[in-house]
Design a protein that fits this description.
alpha/beta, D-Maltodextrin-Binding Protein, domain 2, 14 helices, disordered N terminus, 40% helix, five-stranded mixed β-sheet
Length: 318
């Protein structure tokens, strides 16, 4: 998805002005799997908790770490693989909440043959976007290993922009294409020659997107604000889970204007059904699964212990 620019409560709500505590978020992207946060902004849930939340999306995405370091952001939103690989090497970060509980990717193929199996991909070439970080390749190769397939038995093209790879895939490059679910459905909607072989949201829990901050900067005041943020975010998650996407299609159209609204509705409901959004708490089982994937990818020497990086008490305090 493209960068919509700075996001503020005034971008989303009805213009109500309240005196509240500034709470600055820096995020690695603008994605449908962050929907409960956008709903919380639109519906004033953060303001109810006395927080004036603003969002900045730096380009390139790793500017979120600079924003934490120089104090221009109070927290970062992105993949847990970053604070994991930085732990005890460069900087220690503490994760205090989760928003996306599943992987929001999809696997595209040409044609519409039934009976797809991951084993069919052995010896084939897979295109994978990487402009937003390493998550795409990390998850896909972990999924291969979990299904007893050596990731080295496939060829990869993954050092190019997602839009470029999408155009090349439709033009004949490679055999499969891994991209975000929303972009995949949009491509299928306009291109009858491609179809979705697999939606990764169906492939069990993983803490895909989390909120974190430099560990050394955490104070009781910071924890208090994080607690209130979790309460509001949890309310946003509950709201999305309680409303069929068809009932708020106008909001989805405003949030994602470059995507056909029917596609946005379809993906949102698929995410609702398949556990993309649950609670703000990082799941232990999903955390441990992802840590094994990061170890096998050599990003960490050994899987991190849950308590070494996650402050679970904040998210469950709501």
């Amino acid at each position: 998805m493209g960068d919509p620019g700075p996001i503020t409560p005034d971008s989303f709500n009805d213009g109500r002005q309240q005196i509240s505590q500034p709470f600055r978020l820096t995020a690695t992207g603008y994605n449908l799997n962050y929907l409960p946060e956008y709903i919380a902004l639109r519906h004033g849930f953060f303001q109810e908790q006395g927080l004036h939340v603003t969002v900045n999306i730096p380009v390139p995405w790793d500017g979120v770490l600079d924003a934490l370091a120089d104090g221009t952001a109070d927290m970062a939103l992105g993949g847990i693989w970053v604070p994991s690989m930085y732990r005890d090497r460069v900087q220690n970060y503490t994760v205090f909440a989760q928003i996306a509980n599943r992987c929001p990717l999809a696997l595209l193929r040409r044609g519409h043959d039934d009976g797809f199996k991951l084993q069919d991909m052995v010896g084939k070439t897979v295109l994978m976007k990487s402009g937003g970080g390493a998550s795409v390749g990390l998850f896909f190769k972990m999924l291969m290993r979990e299904n007893d397939i050596d990731p080295r038995s496939l060829d990869y093209i993954q050092d190019l922009d997602g839009v470029m790879l999408g155009n090349l895939f439709q033009g004949g490059m490679g055999d499969y294409f891994v991209t975000d679910n929303l972009s995949a459905l949009a491509m299928v909607d306009r291109n009858p020659n491609v179809s979705i072989a697999m939606e990764m949201v169906e492939q069990e829990d993983v803490p895909w997107s989390v909120y974190y901050r430099e560990t050394a900067t955490i104070t009781p005041e910071v924890i208090d604000a994080q607690n209130r943020f979790c309460v509001a975010l949890g309310k946003g998650i509950d709201w999305v889970l309680q409303h069929d996407a068809e009932s708020f299609r106008d909001e989805l159209a405003e949030l994602f204007p470059t995507v056909p609204v029917d596609v946005a509705v379809k993906v949102t409901n698929a995410f609702r059904r398949n556990g993309m959004w649950t609670t703000t708490t990082v799941p232990r089982e999903g955390f441990n699964r992802w840590q094994l994937g990061l170890r096998d990818a050599r990003l960490v020497k050994e899987p991190l212990a849950y308590e070494s990086i996650v402050h679970d008490g904040i998210a469950v305090a709501k």
